[in-house]
Amino acid sequence: MQFRNSIVWLRRDLRLEDNIALSKACEMSENVIPLFIFDSNILSKLKNKEDRRVQYIYETLLQLRDELNKNGKDIIILYGKPEEEIEKIAKKLNIDALFCNKDYESYAYKRDQTVKKQLQAHNIQFFSYKDQVIFEEKEILNNQGQPYQVFTPYKKAWLTMYQKEKINIANYKIDKLCPKRNLDVFDSTLALADIGFNKINLSFRAGRVGGIECLQNFANKLSRYHEQRDLFALDGTSRLSVHLRFGTISIRELFLFAKKNHSEGSEIWQSELIWREFYKMILCQFPYVEKQSFKRQCANIKWIDNPEYFEKWKNGMTGFPIIDAAMRHFKQSGWMHNRLRMIVASFLSKDLLLDYRKGEEYFADNLIDFDLSSNNGGWQWCASTGCDAQPYFRVFNPAAQSKKFDPSGDFIRKYCPELKLLDDKYIHEPIKSPEKVLITAQCRLGIDYPKPIVQHDIQRLKAMNLFK
């Protein structure tokens, strides 16, 4: 099957390299037109008009456009409702087919189905491909033909299938892409202001260039990943989550990188990537988790409604240094270390007894690497409401976690400077400091730094009773 004019619709795959939809479009078409649409259905719901994710996408698209322009090619960048914009472009350019990579979230699925029906009504073909995961939906099932609900056997089955699978990097033909002069009719030089957002500065480089740079930096840390990944003061993680989220680097590239650089650290890192696929599978097979607990019986939990606690948690004013440092860092950067995500999520649901969905929503609004399935899966794991979640009676002790993973208090001192003069012995629990120590450290509890808003040991028992 060969088409004359095709669109490749980019969404969570903002790259030319190893892009399955682009590769297929080049194989099956004479002329391929790259397209990106800032989806007004999504952007209109964003509360903050200085959004790091929008900024990341915008900078990535400018980078992508520059790369294409150097080869005499271009990309159409629009703002609006995809179901309206695509239909207009298809008519204007006499499009025969549209190629895209699958998106598994409920809104995206419905949107794609709408676009597919519209195009088919005009005899335009719609093709979608697996790209953002190695294995999707029902590819990995248990012996009863049912989806796994526990990670370890899923991972074992995943690795078995991966060893049999031949993972290839998809190529594309630059000469198949539409010449820039043919797209000059589209004024798609959008500024951020045109889509209702303000420019902000990111603390790292966006786009494919940023993703490759990040991967190269991680190559030096991968062999020690298992030892350093949980130490907050060290930069021991990959920092690739945002690049993976928006597809400036592919999941296939990451697994091939891990295979090439095999080590104990590499194996642990691969497990983290497989968790990502596990949660995507869960979202596809059990879509109700988007709105409610995976464990149906947890729908009866009577969470506490305390807006004051929630505000103090958000603003890093709980009186628990590791919680406060993590939340303040998050507010500044839009990113959080995975171990810290677990600690603050456990604290919200098990110490403050607040509905995990409030925390999940706050993260969804502010995480630069927000991914619905991973965010939902992570929060439900910590709240003990999800699949293969930690048992309800296991409650993270913030001070113990802090002492274990930030023993010298460097991370706390950086983001809670009012505690910086406290010595290592007391910085994790200032409330236990002798008065003379606090005076020497120039820290007045309740004035310079808040006293704990709850008592962990008491709240732990309340949480257990809540679940029982």
Could you explain the architecture of this structure?
This protein has 20 helices and five strands. The protein is of the alpha/beta class and 468 residues long. It has three domains: 3-131, HUPs (Rossmann fold, 3-Layer(aba) Sandwich); 133-167 and 208-285, Alpha Horseshoe (Serine Threonine Protein Phosphatase 5, Tetratricopeptide repeat); 296-467, DNA Cyclobutane Dipyrimidine Photolyase, subunit A, domain 3 (Orthogonal Bundle), CATH 1.10.579.10. It has a five-stranded parallel β-sheet with strand order 3-2-1-4-5, with helices on both faces. Helix 1 (20-28) links the parallel strand 1 and strand 2. Helix 6 (151-164) packs across helix 11. The longest helix has 22 residues, at 264-285. 41% of the residues are buried. The model has no long low-confidence stretch (mean pLDDT 96).
